[in-house]
Input
Amino acid sequence: METRALGAEFIGTLGLVLGGCGAAVLAADFGTGGNGTSLGLGFVGVSLAFGLTVVTGAYALGHISGGHFNPAVTAGLVAGGRFPMAKAPLYIASQVAGAIVGAVLIYLMAGSPEIDNSAAGAFAANGYGDLSPNGSAMGTAFITEVVMTAMFLIVILGATAKKAAAGMGGLAIGLMLVLIHLISIPVTNTSVNPARSTSQALFAGGDYIPQLWLFWVAPVIGGVLGALIYRGLLGEAEDVEFA
Output
């Protein structure tokens, strides 16, 4: 396997965490101005930040590695016949490593703060129950992550198919990620990406660690399910990588 491809996955996932989670940690709530208006991005701004990182990463790095930046995407592309299973473990390891380095950079940029790991969404981490922004139960969180990731993979496979509009895949995928965050930030703080969830949980600590399993299992199931739906109902497997 090319070192360049693994490097692209590392950098792309680092950028996704730095851009999306960084926006959530550093700029989502930035106080109010003199007229009482919020100076922070809010969850709409954070949703856009996640989408923009995928758009820029896809166009900058997609031609090198396929631009997965997400273990659930890699698993889905394997299930969809777009990516060889033998390459998946090293891709996933590179993604997780990149995400962790991204979280380290956010922590340092935030001034090495003390993190209240009893608070929902602490350090942009994902959670359910008391750690969910709206107190969603485990079952609700699981269903949300499966459905959102499945829809993400359907869009990815459709937007990057050979007959799709040339050069528009990255934009469609990034916009879909914005939509996913707009829907599911209130439920789980939006994962759909086990690498992103792992990096933030490691810093948040507390009950975020034992809850991390859900944000691996549900997105991977969703990614595989979405790929199988696309492959079985909407298209055929193509011997190409996501780019």
Summary: Helices lie at 3-26, 42-65, 71-79, 88-109, 138-159, 169-188, 194-204, 214-234. The chain has one domain: 3-234. The chain has a mean pLDDT of 92. The chain has eight helices and no strands.
